[in-house]
Write a sequence for this structure.
């Protein structure tokens, strides 16, 4: 095939871009220097993150969390006197790429430690690779039952197990006086390992309290037009909408459809999306976020000394307000904290010793709260928190009775207020 | 399922189909005239949405008024892509190689958008985005109604341009036989450059409506391209009217299946319909032969 020189150049650019887009691009960089010995060899911690693709917003937030932790760790002297160097490889949100990335990080690069990727979807295959090499796999966003169903002994999720995410909200609704309690609920959910386990748990609690299910359908993650699904929810006129979502666009589509159809449920909770701070508000429109609940383990206003320090550092580095910070940042930061405590306790980078220590029942500490693992690697020490957007800020509303916790706004205010 | 729900699904499908037709029209035109499969179409739509976002948020310009600025910019961008890249492709390899070249264009645009805007999702906002027309018991969102009207007007304009003007005759002659068109004095290269500009300019309009009806980030274009290609192929490659008909048909089918059966099956039926129609009519609904069949 004969082509012009100009075109040949174009093809070279295209192929290079294609390779980059398919993943495998690494962005290894050392974090800031600290009090470690200048001659000590840095410890390399490898991770695969979704810097592009479906989970790009979460993956990039995770990268910020990991880097903030690495900077703080290095400022304190690093791990065992060695500076920490992060090696981040992009997996384009693809399970096949995440597998080859961890094979590269562990098998080829021989990184001393690894941190987990974003999402249950990517944690399941990557944890198997880490297990094959005997590596501890501490992660912050693989809380779906599918991760723990593998029975692997090297996986440790520092965040709350996702299946119980909606429990606090459902119990709050169930405990409302009979006269105020909603009578009907709708459960549209994406067929994803993160969302689907949450819905039956909440539904069981609500149905036991007399809240009748008027809509319950699963839709595929590939859906780009949510209009008919949202239309059916509106037609069912539920008092509560429990939306199983993994991202901002899904929640945004439902919100806009509800506004357009002039439908305002008494309560609206989404499993993910509203926790993404400013990005969520930009998508749904100022005012439309108010009243929406979201379960999570952390938020920007979380009252804990190390969390407040991290928030300050985040704002100094990236700008914004505490409400703008994606909860993924804290999940990633907590991974680093947990690993650092395990390394310090074992005085070792030996992954076998680290795994044994994390299974020992020791209670560790993180920006999200306490961390203690059961035999499956689930964090049993932390309770699900529920947040709600109130007057333009994301505030903690459940469990009630704790300092700084706001009373839930119920029923939900009108859209745009 | 009630008759009301079915009717609502059909109405939603028609309106959403108009938005998809707007996004697919440029793709169809560019293929029909130039034999170029523009894989960058999805990213160009996202670029159009971001430019609307900038004009709206930073300069306070209304989304529709902003199109008067963005569409000419996209026209120039389209001509630049044709002049700088497509024209260099050898005639026999044009269709296949255009996939690679436009993919590179998509990657570059996506990279620039990520650098400038970051990866967070945004959406276009205006009073008519969240309000709706209440008619016969149905709520019709103004943005979809306006998008559909814009699609119908633009596609009608493209049809008139292609079939009722001297330039349109030149375009179709260039497609039928480049050498013969050259011999009768048509500047084929210039015709193709302008056609690419028009195709990309139409895409800018689709981008604005997409951005007002969906949250988007620089990666959002890839979710669109498979559906847009399905619409263009079903309608008949190069057929503007076919793109409109196919978009409405597929989106109505998608919405009715989602409501009457299950949302899980809707995407499958969307593409299954493409396979079924093509097995009966391989050239697509209006694709016999491309462009000239309308």
């Amino acid at each position: 095939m004969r082509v012009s020189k100009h075109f040949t150049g174009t093809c070279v650019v295209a192929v290079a871009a294609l390779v980059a887009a398919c993943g495998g691009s690494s962005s290894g960089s050392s974090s800031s220097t600290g009090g470690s010995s200048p001659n000590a060899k840095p410890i390399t911690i490898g991770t695969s993150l979704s810097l592009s693709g479906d989970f790009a917003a979460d993956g990039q937030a995770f990268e910020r969390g990991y880097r903030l932790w690495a900077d703080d760790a290095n400022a304190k002297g690093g791990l065992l006197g060695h500076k920490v160097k992060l090696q981040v490889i992009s997996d384009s949100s693809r399970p096949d790429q995440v597998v080859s990335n961890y094979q590269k990080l562990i098998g080829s690069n021989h990184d001393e430690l690894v941190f987990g990727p974003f999402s249950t979807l990517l944690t399941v295959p990557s944890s198997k690779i880490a297990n094959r090499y005997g590596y501890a796999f501490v992660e912050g966003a693989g809380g779906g039952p599918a991760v723990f169903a593998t029975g692997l002994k090297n996986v440790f999720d520092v965040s709350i197990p996702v299946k119980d995410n909606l429990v606090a909200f459902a119990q709050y609704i169930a405990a409302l006086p009979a006269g105020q309690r909603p009578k009907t609920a709708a459960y549209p959910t994406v067929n994803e390992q993160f969302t689907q386990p949450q819905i039956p748990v909440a539904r069981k609690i609500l149905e036991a309290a007399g809240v009748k299910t008027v809509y319950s359908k699963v839709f595929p993650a590939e859906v780009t037009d949510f209009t008919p699904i949202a239309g059916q929810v509106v037609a069912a006129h539920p008092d509560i909408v429990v939306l199983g979502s993994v991202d901002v666009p899904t929640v945004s589509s439902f919100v806009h459809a509800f506004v357009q159809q002039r439908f305002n449920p008494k309560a609206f909770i989404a499993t993910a999306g509203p926790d993404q701070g400013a990005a969520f508000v930009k998508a749904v429109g100022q005012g439309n976020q108010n009243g929406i609940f979201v379960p999570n383990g952390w938020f920007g206003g979380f009252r804990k000394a190390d969390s407040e320090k991290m928030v300050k550092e985040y704002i100094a580095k990236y700008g914004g307000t505490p409400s703008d910070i994606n909860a993924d940042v804290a999940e990633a930061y907590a991974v680093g904290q947990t690993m650092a405590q395990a390394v310090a306790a074992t005085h070792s980078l030996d992954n076998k010793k680290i795994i044994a220590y994390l299974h020992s029942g020791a209670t560790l500490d993180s920006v999200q709260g306490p961390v203690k693992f059961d035999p499956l690697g689930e964090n049993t020490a932390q309770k699900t928190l529920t947040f709600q957007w109130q007057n333009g800020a994301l505030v903690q509303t459940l469990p009630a009775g704790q300092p700084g916790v706001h009373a839930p706004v119920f029923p939900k205010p009108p859209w745009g207020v | 399922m009630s008759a009301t729900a079915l009717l609502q699904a059909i109405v939603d499908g028609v309106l959403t189909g108009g938005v998809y037709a707007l996004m697919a029209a440029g793709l169809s035109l560019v293929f029909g005239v130039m034999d170029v499969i523009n894989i960058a179409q999805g990213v160009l739509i996202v670029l159009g949405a971001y430019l609307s976002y900038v004009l709206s948020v930073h300069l306070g310009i209304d989304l529709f008024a902003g199109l008067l600025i963005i569409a000419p910019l996209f026209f120039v961008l389209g001509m630049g892509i044709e002049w700088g890249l497509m024209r260099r492709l050898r005639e026999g390899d044009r269709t296949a190689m255009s996939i690679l070249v436009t993919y590179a264009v998509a990657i570059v645009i996506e990279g620039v958008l990520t650098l400038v805007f970051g990866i967070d999702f945004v959406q276009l906002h205006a009073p008519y985005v969240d309000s709706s027309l209440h008619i016969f018991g149905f709520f019709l969102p103004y943005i979809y109604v306006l998008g559909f009207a814009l699609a119908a007007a633009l596609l009608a304009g493209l049809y008139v341009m292609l079939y009722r003007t001297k330039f349109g005759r030149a375009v179709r002659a260039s497609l039928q036989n480049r050498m013969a068109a050259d011999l009768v004095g048509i500047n084929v290269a210039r015709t193709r450059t302008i056609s690419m500009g028009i195709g990309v300019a139409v895409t800018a309009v689709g981008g604005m409506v997409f951005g007002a009806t969906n949250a988007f980030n620089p990666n959002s274009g890839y979710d669109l391209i498979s559906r847009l290609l399905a619409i263009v192929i079903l309608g008949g490659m190069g057929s503007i009217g076919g793109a409109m008909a196919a978009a409405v048909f597929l989106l109505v089918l998608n919405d009715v299946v989602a409501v009457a059966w299950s949302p899980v099956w809707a995407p499958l039926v969307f593409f299954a319909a493409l396979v079924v129609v093509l097995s009966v009519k391989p050239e697509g609904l209006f694709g016999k032969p491309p462009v000239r069949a309308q």
Notes: The domain at 3-280 of chain B is CATH 1.10.3470 (ABC transporter involved in vitamin B12 uptake, BtuC). The mean pLDDT of chain B is 88.
